[in-house]
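Following up on my earlier thread - several people asked me to post the actual chain instead of describing it. Fair enough. Here it is, all 495 residues.
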Amino acid sequence: MTGDFFLTNWFLEAMRWIYSLTCAISESGFGNVFLTILISTILLRALTIFSDIKTRKSSAKMAEVQPEIQRLQKKYANDPRRFQAEQTKLMKEKGVSMWGSCLPMLITMPLFFCFIAAFRYWGYEMNLRLLVDENAMELFKSFKFLWINNIWQPDNGLTPVLANGASFLATPQLSNLLYLQEPGVGEKLVEMGLAVTKVYQGGVSYQLLSNDAAIAIYDAAIQPFLDVYKGYNNGWFIMSILAGGTNFRELGGYEADEGKHVKWGQIWRGIPTCKLTGEADRAKLDALGLRLILDLRSTEEARREPDYVPDGARLVQICGLCAEDGREISFAPDDIAALMKGRKENPDGSFFVETMYERMLFGNKAFKELFRALEAGETPILFHCSAGKDRTGVAAMLILLALGASDETICADYERTNLCRKAEIEARLAAHADEIARDPRRENFHRSAAGVSPEAAPFVLRTIRAKYGSAENYLEAEYGLTPARLMRLRRMYLE
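Reply from S.P.:
Thanks for posting it. Predicted structure:
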């Protein structure tokens, strides 16, 4: 969880649990940070009460014999060895130990240090949530106590300046964003273009939907958190965001085989790079050091919106969705008819989604090329389709499956598309509001058209296992990933 001693993890989980209880009784839906800290402190004192009592008793006994020890010091001032012997005899007779007050501290001090470490980690988590929670303003209010705007950080603005030195001074907005001491900072985040998305199972997804200046401010503010969290592999998925498009992210950080995590900066999933038109976007894309861009779109789609290819990268276009006769599917009416083969669609669109995804799972040349590139170490790699959700989503599922990720992790990554494309989904629902009002079943159709259906990922996993019995059998049959090659792939991309 945090990479620290197990007691730290216990304290951290206890704080999270207490906070969840305060959330349950709060009208706002957010817990009381101060109350959580208070209760946690009381519990810590309860754990150390017996050692404290023993320390106090030992100190009291030591105080009682001090006059006699002083008398012995005067009497044997010229004979230290005799004094030591007499002092030891006296303390034995009185039942006093010189170390009696120190030994209990050996128990309490580790508990105290673990408590402080857990408190620090929890503070990092809560500050990060403040930047990404969709109810950031309400969460921010819960951080306040008396005159302190953010209980997690010192109220004195001089403290972070002294602590961070030149790096702090190099980023003037850091005091407002990182330490969150100014009143109304939550509103300022919104004004600067920091859109927020929901936290899922400890993971976060950021979207920055504003100008280059807002991007620069965001990067300066979030970098300290990147430096802290990236090394812990504790489930926080933090990434640079591109303003020119949504749903551009990486698979780094996900927990996979044997509790290891996918390496950062190696496997990216996204959208056509031509949509990343801003200078800041292009600079970030160039900085990824991509060696391969695998375009899963049809030839026609790629022709209409050709990819931008950074220096040093190679572009490969192989359609990730084809009909049984090999015809590339570009989602034109004729292509959809060819894919469905006269199969009647249901109102919620699930038949089409299932047909589309099932076609992608077997005999897919694009996915074979994807695994070939991964085995060859042709990374960092970016694979994408038109919106980074269906063809890209299935490809990401298969990679995580090959790396030994759990079904829950695979489905969570797939569904994150709905967080990243929230604006697109809401826009489509608004545009088809009348149709949905006439037939509510059409809402699911339009949601999956702009985003993804939560039922699709479990369907993919069920389909694979239904045909091949296991994920391992499927990966070997479809992509030649024998147990030995699969193990090698995991050694390459897990840490």
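The radius of gyration is 30 Å. That should answer part of your original question.
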